[in-house]
Amino acid sequence: MKRRLLFLVFATSLMAFGQIRDFFPWWETPIARDLNLSDDQTQKIQAIVREYRDRLIDLRANVEKSDNQLTDLVNEDHPDSQKVNAAIERILTARTELTRAVAQMGFRLRMVLTPQQWKELQKRRPLPQRFGPDGAGPRPPLRKGDPRRPLPEDEE
Q1: pTM of the model as a whole
Q2: Residues 75, 2 contacting (CB under 8 angstroms)
Q3: How far apart are CA 104 and CA 123, in angstroms?
Q4: Distance between CA 122 and CA 128 in Å, rounded?
Q5: Model confidence over 101-154: pLDDT tens digits?
Q6: Residue 47, SS3?
Q7: Can you give the residue range of the structural domain that contains 57?
Q8: Which residues of 110-126 are buried (b: 16+ CB within 10 A; e: fewer)?
Q9: Has residue 96 been placed in a domain?
C-alpha cells in the first residue's frame, strides 16, 4: 500500500513538472548569444529574471516542503487519510503556483524577443528526453528506492 501511494505521488510530481517541460533557462546558455540580442533586450531579460528569481526560489521551496510533508504523512505506520488528502491539496496548490509563475515569466521573456529570435530559440530548444519502450532512448538505470525498481520479497 505504501509503495503504491508513494509511486502515485512520484508519478503526479512528474506530471506536474511536465507542464513546464518546455521551459529552460535559455538566457543562461550560449543560445542567448546566438540570438543576437540587443543591449536593450539583454537588459530587459536580466530585469525579468531578477524580478522572478526570488519568487521562483520560494515557490520551488514550497513544492519541496509540501512534498516532504506528504512523504512524512504517507510513511507513518497508520496514515491519516484526512491529513494525507490535505497534504495532497497543498502540494497541488504549490505546484500550480510554481507552474503559473514559470509560465508568466516565460511569456514575458518571449515578448522581449522578435518573431525571428523566437523561431530561432524554438529550433535550438533542447529536445525532451524520452525513455522506455515507447521512447527514443534506453531506460535510465534503476536506483535503489526508484518506484519502478521491484523490491526484493523481504522488503515489500
Answers
A1: 0.65
A2: yes
A3: 21
A4: 13
A5: 999 999 999 999 999 999 988 887 766 655 555 555 555 555 555 555 455 554
A6: helix
A7: 1-6+52-117
A8: eebbeeebeebbeeeee
A9: yes
